[in-house]
Amino acid sequence: MSWDFFVPVCVGDLVKTGGINQYVVQDVVPPKQLPPYLSKFKAALRSQGPLCILEHFDTGYSVLQHCNSVELGVKEDTLELLVQVVSGLAASLPAFLASTSVSADERKEKLNAVKMSVYLLCKLTETFESDSYRQSIVTAPGKGGKKGKGGGEGLLQWDSEREKVLQALVQLLQLDIRSLWSLSLVEEEFISCVTCCCYKLLENPTISHVKSKPTRDGIIHLLGVLIKKYNHLLGAGVKVIQLLQHFEQLSSVFAQAVSVWSTEYGVRAIIGEVIREIGQRSSEELAREASGVKAFASFIAELGSLVPELVIPNISVLITHLEGESHSMRVAVCEVLGEILVRVLCGDGLDESGKADRDRFFDTLQEHLHDTHSHVRARVLQVYTRIVNSKALPLCKYSEVMELAVGRLMDKSINVVKSAIQLLAAFIAHNPYSCKLSSADLKKPLEKETAKLREIKEQLEGKAPVAVIKASELWAAMEPELLVTVTTELEPTSEAEREQDEEEDVEENKEAEDDRATAVKVAQYLRVNKYRNAVRLCMRAHSCFPKSEMFASLSTLTAETLMDTLALIFKGSDEDTSELSQNLPPTPQKEAEKEVEDGELKKQEMLVQYLKDTETFALQVERAISVINTMLYLKTTSVVQEAVQFCVTVCEFSVANSVSGVRKMLPLVWSTDSAIKDAVVQAYRRLYLNPQGETIRTKANTLVDSLSELMVDASLGTIQCVEEIVQEFFGSGSNLQSTVVQVLWERFTGKRETSGLHRRAAVLLLGMAARAEREVVLSNLDTLCSVALGEKVTEDFLLARDAVITICSITDHVRQSKGAPFRLPQDHQLFTCLTQAIADGVVMEDPYWQSFMEQAVRLLYFMAESPDQLCTRLLQRSARLLLDQIAEGGELNKDASQMQDVSQESNEQGEQVNCVCLAQLLALCGCVAFWQVSHLERSVSAELRRRRGEKEEREEKEKGPSSKAKQAANESAMEEELGLIGASAEDTEAELIRKICETELLAEENLLSVFLPLLVRVCSSPGRYSHPQLTTAACLALSQYMMISPATCEENIRLMFTVLERSALPVVRANAIIALGDLTVRFPNILEPWTQNLYARLSDNVPSVRQTAVTVLTQLVLKDVLKVKGQVSEVAVLLIDPEPHITSLALNFFNELASKDNAIYNLLPDIISRLSDPERGMSSEDFNTIMKQLFSYITKERQTESLVEKLCQRFRTAKTERQWCDLAMSLSLLSMCERGFKRLQECWECYSDKLTEPGVYQPLLSITARLRRGAKAQFKAQVDEFEKRLTAVHTRGLENVESPEMDEENQKGVGSSEKTVMCTPTPARGRTRSKRGQAKPSVSGRSNDSFVTPQKSRKSKKPAITFSSDEEEDEEDAVMADSETPKVTTPISRTSRRARLRN
């Protein structure tokens, strides 16, 4: 073969005249003539094999040249032929390459065939890929998901063909075809041809999809072959970076590719190349390439997750990006560090270098827990969560990271808070300390073990020599006894004893090898008081070591020479003493003892340290619990869900105070957010309703124990929420239900020993179960009566109360039954026990009797037939018992009817009657009065309606079918008539009930009327009846009596408000507020003139009274019982209350009020006027705090515009500098827009004369600064001009500044510039100065009814009030005199003129 094929840079280069022996295309076939040429190509392939490409290259080139005009079928046929050629070459080349006898022509022929076929295949593949991409854009789904015409068929075929192309190329290039080139140097153009095709395929947007996995894997492996065998390493690194910059979706693809190249193909250098390129990018470059930064970050993170061990050598390059501005890169690097710590630098087998790297990486992560970007902080917390879950966090880091995680709970970012909660939950779930974390439980063991450690240390210190004793001193001490031993040993002995002693000595001293060792042995014997052994050894030493200097003196064996030798050995000369003592090894026994002691000390130190770490960890968890518990009621659903899951986790690990969080999240079962509700229900099901145990009995006991713990000391709200959970359990059809009920009955009846608290919890749980299944309680009613309401009822009124609550759960009032009412006869055992217990308790001083009595009277009216008769007898019996108690003190017995004279004879009786017993009797009277009214209006009224309904149904049935035809003829008329009849009947029933309440309940023949004068007497004479419990009970009972009829209410309303204002007991004032709130709902017209007195309690000195007042007023206002007026400013003051709970209640009030249309918008001007009143004396800081909250509810542009005008107009009526400053500050709090700014300019005359005050000027200046941000050029110019005008007036005064308005006034001749200033008008003659809390009359020329507070009406001075409840006055005189009314913060206007005329 005389020519060579060179891969061209451009397709058109092949038709140009080339160099010497360079192949040039001779014949470019026109598109229409291509099919017959392709047929020849196909035939040649069959006959000649893959080398036919040498002859038919021009045909393939012609298809490539005319690719835009050639039919699709022709191109597909060409592609198929080229794939076959490449595959044929891949099949035939192995044998050719293995052959040793190959000529140069044959090698050139094969090389040209390879280059031609690969070139055509790659270029045609790129063409198909471009066409496919264009087609996917044209046929992309539009609206409704419908594809364009002809969409997708060719596309799908190309997907399958693309895989064949890649497979053929991989098969060919995997062979060692480099030997076809001279010197095995593959030309760069050939490599570029293949790699360009691969990178072209990677640009496809769908390459990262799951369906493209075969294509993706093919490209990765093809590039891997090129990198490994064809020196494409540098080119691949550069190309990866370039493509990542432009195609963000390739990040995961290239991460997978690089990991495959470095692991399967062993080209680890590629990781260093790519990471080095990314690491060298500056912050400025990354800032310019937003999409590139995301792709780089994603690539690094995913590469770290795939091959973290290969990233470590290059991590120093990446860490530089932690100091850069791109938060995405910081996140990626932190995630890589996390993967390295989890999968590489973990475990105990690390060397010193690995431990140093690990600690450095942990320190880096900890630094970025305080990163400036919230996304980085959140992701670092998530990295730590993964580390903790993988148990890769060193124990020494637990406390430090835990502390940081708790701190992140206060982060402003929701995502950071969520991640922090997840991390804390992971810490608890995978903690290495204990399955139960309670600092209180750990305190005693820690103290005990610390004390034990202290004792061990003291013992060891005691055993150690306190002072060094010299050898000479020891010798002097032992010399007398040693001399006796020496003398004894020198005496003659029998041969048998001598032989036995010699055998023993030989065995003991066989280890001694030289004279020095023998001397050491002798010294050891002397030290442990083995004198006999020391003497014998010394005697034999001379014969064993005759030349030794130590034993030379023993040549003549006497007591003196032996003692001298022993002294020399023990004491030695002055020089040898220290050396000898150092060479004396400790005895093996002492060594063993020392090792044991050191081991015990070390173990004890480790135990104490473990307990300390555990306690520290538990304290941090408890601190986290207190913070997370406050997040259960945030508005962000996801945070609440995380907080709920955390509460469950800490409860499962028995962390101290974990039950508080579980209880706190209980009310969320009523949440309107279904996600939160489901999370809470699932949490309680996991904690309480899915108990663990081997048997059903064990599971039932566990479930009851868990629920009982939740019920102990629970509030009423908590019990109601638990009830919802328990009802769900009993409604779920669990196989534990019957066993659980049995366990509860056993606990309640005392068959199983249990505490009183758990007995009460058991009976309450039975009541909850009875709501789902009535028979649970109804079938055991006698048991309830005998156990809780029997003879021992007076010993435990709390158990009796809870038993009564349980029985109430089977009544119609709770179950809302629509059938005949479920009631029991009066002589039933239940009512006998109840009345007996109530009456006996009246004359007892039990603090829990009253709560029992209230529930018992409620049950009497719910379940008894004719409960009014029962209660009448109960009152008679209770009053007689009280009179009998008085009689025992020396008074004569009186009949119950004589109680009418109590009010006249209280002077005599007041000294003998027990105040607590009298208070309990009055409380019983009030309770009976209240439930009597409730019984009439609910039970009796409902029964009348039910009977009327049944009667109407019977009448319809009696009419029969004959009347139906007539009804059909006059259907509309009959319906109207029936409707009127129904309405009339209901009105009649209501009138009957009302008449009974007004005329019969307090008639002389009714026992309730007997106690009313006594109640009035006690309430109106606080000096005489000063006992707190008596006063409290009397006031509460009187308010319950006032619920009976309007007449009773009107008679005693003045007295009740006097109690509210003047009572010294906070509990009385709080009860009075609640009672008056109920009366306001029942008799709104009577209570309307007294509204200002209710609002006055918002400024009470006692926090509990303020809390009660704001709660009651919130309910009244939000339910539209009270009209929202200017007195709401008193609620606004509570936004700065020192008590956080009261502040939250006030905030909730305004949050709810804001949901009503324009409510806060209408009230704001009056609130501002009242709060800025100089007589109130509110500080500027407090005023700003309140206004900032209130103005946050103003969100509509029209409201803002209107408020700007209203507030500007108020400048004219404001009389003090402080009021000007408050109005200006209020203006600055508005989120003003262009229209609001225009209105501010229009009202220039209202405030321009006040601008010399800094308190007015600075807030208005802040408005201009805020408006200038992001403003358009034209509007910005207006703002700048307005700011200059403000500054000019502020610095020089209004009269010295020329303005357009003044010029116009001068031209018109109205007057001088001084007259253009609007001065504050003087008050009209005769108008009194407005008092504190009363609104100022508006002098604005604009009519605005919603904002102008009406002027104070003229009224005559009101007469002073007396305590007597018999005094009757007109309604207008119901207001207390100014001298007797307590100092309130904002009294409201008196009753309207229309109301006074009506009354």
TrEMBL record:
Annotated region described as Disordered, given as residue ranges: 489-515, 942-971, 1292-1399
Please note every region of biased composition (Acidic residues): 492-512, 1365-1375
Domain (Condensin complex subunit 1 N-terminal) spans 74-236
Its function, per the record, reads: Regulatory subunit of the condensin complex, a complex required for conversion of interphase chromatin into mitotic-like condense chromosomes. The condensin complex probably introduces positive supercoils into relaxed DNA in the presence of type I topoisomerases and converts nicked DNA into positive knotted forms in the presence of type II topoisomerases.
Biased composition, Basic and acidic residues: where in the chain?
Answer: 942-961
In this chain, composition skew of type Polar residues spans 1340-1351
Q: Which GO terms describe its molecular function?
A: histone binding
The Swiss-Prot or TrEMBL record describes its family as follows: Belongs to the CND1 (condensin subunit 1) family.
What InterPro entries is this protein classified in? Answer: ARM-like, ARM-type_fold, CND1/NCAPD3, Cnd1_C, Condensin_cplx_su1, Condensin_cplx_su1_N
Tell me where in this chain the Condensin complex subunit 1 C-terminal domain is found. 1067-1227
Mind telling me which Pfam families this protein's record contains? Cnd1 (PF12717), Cnd1_N (PF12922)
Protein name per its UniProtKB record: Condensin complex subunit 1
Q: Which SUPFAM superfamilies does the entry mention? A: ARM repeat
Q: Where does it mainly reside?
A: nucleus
Q: What's in the keyword line of the UniProt record? A: Cell cycle, Cell division, Chromosome, Cytoplasm, DNA condensation, Mitosis, Nucleus, Phosphoprotein
Cellular localisation = Chromosome; Cytoplasm; Nucleus
Kindly list the biological process annotations in GO that this record carries. Answer: cell division; meiotic chromosome condensation; mitotic chromosome condensation
Tell me a GO cellular component.
cytoplasm
- Gene3D superfamilies, A to Z: Leucine-rich Repeat Variant (1.25.10.10)
